[in-house]
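Methods — Computational structure assignment.
A single polypeptide chain was analysed. Its primary sequence is given first, followed by the predicted tertiary structure written as structure tokens.
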Amino acid sequence: MTKQTKIVAGLLAGAALGAAVALVLASDKNDALKQKASDWLFGFLSSSKDNLATVGDILKNKIGKVNA
């Protein structure tokens, strides 16, 4: 896969995910579904933030070892 193909695929996947989330959150009929979607999204973002912090710490340690 070329770099441009990966970028286009990522953009299309992001657009599809955004559209799906918008449809779920825009419907007035399913408050329980809205709550589940928002809980899932909050959990996903929280775990992503934690994972990125861990990766950042690992990288800082590796760079520190290389520079030492």
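Note: Residues 5 and 14 are 14 Å apart (CA to CA).
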